[in-house]
Specification:
InterPro entries: AB_hydrolase_fold, UPF0227/Esterase_YqiA. Helix content is about 35%, strand content about 20%. The protein is of the alpha/beta class. It has a single domain, classed as Alpha/Beta hydrolase fold, catalytic domain (Rossmann fold). A six-stranded parallel beta sheet has the order 2-1-3-4-7-8, sandwiched between helices. It has a two-stranded antiparallel sheet with strand order 5-6. It is globular.
Length: about 190
Amino acid sequence: MQEIVYLHGFASSSRSEKAVLTEQYFQAIPKVRFRALDLPYTPNEAMATLEIMLAEPPLAIIGSSLGGFLATVFAERLGCRACLINPAVAPHKVLKNYLGSYDHPVLQQRYQVSAEHMPLLKALMPESLQNASQYFVLLQTGDEVLDYRDAVQYYQGANVQLVTGGDHSFVGYQHYLPQIAQFCLQA
């Protein structure tokens, strides 16, 4: 059984629209186990959770936004494929604008985003990609949260699909699921 793992973005969960659509799509594919993980929001806790959950490397990791950043960190460590949807390239630069207290919608926990988390996120960021061909990156130019040009630059050499318009949620995501599955399931 081949495993595909989905990592949600900041202030999201395994029950987000993208996660649910992805789960429904992969359920129809034989011999594939799909898991959408709910991650803690502090960098150390998220990394500890992922190290346990990904002890057996998956075939591929799908990550959206902050989940795309974490998918990159683990794809680099594990050598697996990663499909990224509007990924955060340098989350320490973006999240510094979101300091404060939040509620996790599924875990039913309150969490803090603090300035102390920013150096931890920066330290996790791979300086460069070891094998750009293991990445499929979906970007929309209308992303109002992240500058898509940062991802275009960082993921040079990867299979990057740049879509004009859209927004951070990646409008029309469900139409890209066949491409995502094809990329993830390549041997």
